[in-house]
Each structure stands twice: as structure tokens, then as C-alpha cells.
Amino acid sequence: MYFNHPIFLVTILLLLIFVNISHDGGKDLRKWLPTLSIMSTLIILINPFLVSRGTTILFYFRGKQVTVEAFMYGITMALFIAIILVIFISFNIILNGNRFLYIFSKFLPRIALMIMMAIRFVPLMKRRLDEIGDVQRLRGMSMTVGSLKTRVRSGMLRIQILLTWSLEEAVHVSNSMKARGYGSEGKKSSYTPYYMEKRDWFWLFVLASLMVVCFYGGKLGYGQMIIYPELGPWQFFQFDWVVFFCMLILTSFPLITEGREKLRWK
Amino acid sequence: MARARASLIIATATVFIMLIVMYAVFNYHNYLLLSLGIIGGIMMLFFIRFEIKTVKTREIVILALLAAIGAVARVPFAGLPSVQPTSFVIITVGLVFGAESGFLVGALAALVSNIFLGQGPWTPWQMFAWGTMGMSAGLLRQFAGMGNLWVLNTFGFIWGFIFGWMMNLWIVFSNMQNFTWEFLVGIYVSSFYHDLAHAISNIVFISLFSMSWTRILNRFKKKHGLLEDPALNQTINRT
Questions:
Q1: Are B50 and B87 found together in one domain?
Q2: Containing domain of residue B32, as a range?
Q3: Where does the sequence pass through the membrane (chain B) (predicted)?
Q4: What local confidence, expressed as pLDDT, does residue B4 receive?
Q5: What is the pLDDT of residues B89-102, one digit of tens each?
Q6: Do A125 and B72 contact (CB within 8 A), yes or no?
Q7: Phi, psi for A141 (deg, rounded to 5)
Q8: One domain for residues B63 and B22
Q9: Which of B174, B212, B220 is nearest residue A167 as measured by Cβ atoms?
């Protein structure tokens, strides 16, 4: 947790939610919303009862002190976890197959290929499992009725059938790859739809310097609130505002670029 | 070989540099980021090793396929809580194809299944835990006892718990500021039944299916000459 000032965290969370909505209208985010809200509420509620650090006592619960500080810490913790999850949801949307392979094929080409292949195999395997399941159901081997042992056995049998079915086919896949020249010596050219332009480098530099300011500010304790042992003041100091402003641009950068495009192409 | 050694040294050095940098720069010691960096560094060693090795195209496809099966294996068991045969698949792969393949399949299965179930800060931990599970199975296969069903069951049972204990660590590390021994014990106690279910389901899968799966994979390995021990090959070539 780098910044732990609640105002910082709330702003970051809101901005990231907007960024997420700008990707796909918040479709993925809505799927995660129940998990996210339950987890955050649990953390906020449980933390003050588990941890009795802090000096400002609200009340006693079974002889243990429940403090404002622990409560506050629970809130920052929950916000922090929510931020991480929202970032990962965006990450999943943005870093789709093509881009993932593009980035990782630079330094881990074989692993990247393997990951891509495994990702592609998953829907295929799911479809095959459905087919196998249909056949097995006709043969009277159900996953829904019977004792736990028979259910487990019939479920695993399906996966075993899937294994024997798919292993042979994997050899076909690799033969086809070989026929198309995978792994052969010599350089092959490939089309890459992504390249760095001068303006990309410029903005990368700008973002990096904003990041440095944020790190430096964080190191000096700006953007942070003292929670234990006693809740610190809420107020922002002068450099807090600078850090806050840098952080604001940094997190809303996708929104700014996307928004500008939207306005220009209207 | 020189290139291999150089990149391995670089990856190792990165872990140590990260330790120092994290300690110096973050005065709010950021244990979660630090732990993720170290785990990433350790896994990178395995990945780099695989990149450098000469591997057949077949072997790449087979490992990807096994990882996908490990990930998909969770689907038919979605109705049965805490029963998932992914660990069983990974252990079997480690036993048949060796430590490195076991690690790769374990790590990939975690990464790939999380692409569909939701990626998060727990992904590297899961990759690491399942990876080491496969790796340890591969390392221990040289002992004759691993062919024995009782030994294998004990192995699966123990790993059911170790996996859970490793996964608990990410919760502990993300809460480091809050750390008390009570908190640590609380987390480990609360995960006990979940770990027990994992351990028992490992036993069930191993005792029911370990024989047939090993036979299937072994036959396939022999038929297509996949992922064989270099040591074994040398003895065959010599004779």
C-alpha cells in the first residue's frame, strides 16, 4: 500500500472505475461487483474486531477495545483491494491474446506461445467435455445423481476420456506447426500492428516523470495518513496537493486520451 | 550454455536487487509487491531454463494441452465444493514427464484457469504453489516408493495442506501492517477445512485414477518419444 490517504484512494478507485467503463461499458466490472462489495464490507467490519491497536476507543466488545484507527485501517485496506481488483479487470480486458503474445514473445517466446495455446485449448476442451458429458449421460453415468464417490468417479472418467482424445490431436497440431516452419532456423518476418512513435515515447516520458514525483512524494510521507497508533490529521499539505495532482493525471491518462479521441471524431 | 548461465545469473541478481531496492525505497515496507517480485523472479528462472533448452515442437504442444486440461478439469466438478482434480493432473504430469514439465504445467494451469475465473494478486502465488507441486512430484519420482499407491496418497494428502498454506501467505503478506501472531494463526485455522477437503480429494483422485492416467501418459510418452530423461537417453545411446 503506497498511498493510504482515504481521499487519494477514493479518487483513484473512482477514476479507475471510469477507465473500466470506458473499455467495455462496465460489463466485466458488473460481474465482479457482488464479490467486490462483499469482500470490502467483510474487511471493513472484521478488521476493527480482530485488531485492537490504536488509541481512540469507540467501545468495548467482549473485553477487547474497538478503535477508530482499526476501523479506518479496514476502510483503506478495502479500498486498496478494490483498486487492485479493478486494475486487474482492466488488465484482463486490455491485454487480450494478440497483445499478450506481442509483449511476451520478445523475451519468453516459447512460454508465451505455450500460454496462448493453453488459453486457446480451454474453450475447445470445454466443448469436448460437453460432448463427452452428453454421451456419458446417455450411458447412465450422471454427475448430478448418485453418491459422492460415483459422481467423482464419473466426472474424472470424463476428463480421462478428454485426455486420451486430445493427446493424439496435440501431435497433429504440432505436425502442422512444423509443416508451417515453426522452430526452423533463420529469421522470419511477422506483421506487428503495434509500434512506438515519437509521441508515444514523449507520453511515456511524461508518465514516468509523474510516477517519479508520486514515488518521491510517497517516500517523504505525502499522500499518506498516519493511522496507528493514533489517527493523523486529514488535511493536505502543499506537497500533498502536488502529489495528488500528479496521481490524478497518471490514473486518468487513459480517460484523457480516449476522451480526446471521442471529442475529435464526433 | 554461456547464454543460459548469463540469463540465469541475471534473473537471480534481479531478485536480490529487488530486495535491496524495496528495502531502500519503500519506507512503508511494501511486502505484497516485494513477495510478488521474488516469486516472479523464482519462476522466471524456470521459464528461462525452458526457453534455452532444445525442445521439440510436440513437447510444447503437449505441455500446453496438459495445462489446459488441468485448468478445464475444474469445470465438471463446479457442483462439488472444494473438489478439483487440477492438483491430481499436475502431480501425475510431474510423475510421468519430470520436474520441469510438472512445474510448467502447474504454473500454466493456474495462469490459464485464472484467465477464465478471474486474475488477481493471488495468481502468482497459485502459479508458484501448483508449479512446485508438479516439480516436487517430478523430483521424487526417482524413488521407487512413488510407484506405491500409499506413498503417492500420502504425498497428495500433504500437498493438499501445503498448497493451502502457501495460498494463505498472500493474505498475510497483503496485510503485513496489521500483522499479529493471532491474525496468522486465525487465517491458518480458518483455512483448515478447505485444505482438508483438498487433501482428501487428492487422495480420492490418486487412488482411483493415478494408475490409469500414468499408464496413458507413459504409453503416449514412449510412442512419440516425448520429454525423456537426458540421462536415460544417454544410457540407451551408449548401449
A1: no
A2: 1-54
A3: 7-25, 31-48, 60-77, 89-117, 149-172, 192-213
A4: 61
A5: 999 999 999 888 99
A6: yes
A7: -105, 95
A8: no
A9: B220
- pLDDT over threshold 60, residue B236: no
Chain A contact present for B174, CB below 8 A? yes
**Are A164 and B108 an interchain contact pair (Cβ–Cβ within 8 Å)?**
no
Q: Dig out the grid coordinates for A163 from the structure.
A: 485426455
- Same domain for B76 and B50: no
- DSSP code for A185: S
Cα–Cα distances (Å) from B90 to A10, A74, A76, B105, B108, in that order, read 41, 37, 38, 7, 10
Residue ranges of chain A with per-residue pLDDT less than 70: 1-2, 97, 186
Buried b vs exposed e over B102-122: b needs ≥16 C-beta within 10 Å?
bbbbbbbbbbbbbbbebbbbb
User: Cβ B60–A113 below 8 Å, yes or no?
Assistant: yes
Mapped onto helix, strand or coil, the DSSP state of residue A66 is: strand
Q: Å from A174 to nearest chain B CA?
A: 5
Same domain, yes or no: B19 and B123: no
Mean pLDDT of chain B: 82
Co-location of B50 and B122 in the same domain: no
Out of B34, B54, B74, a domain closes at B54
Closest-CA residue of A relative to B208 is A153
Residue B61 has its nearest CB partner, among A149, A170, A219, at A170
Provide the residue type at B168 as one letter. Answer: N
Q: Is residue B238 part of a domain?
A: no
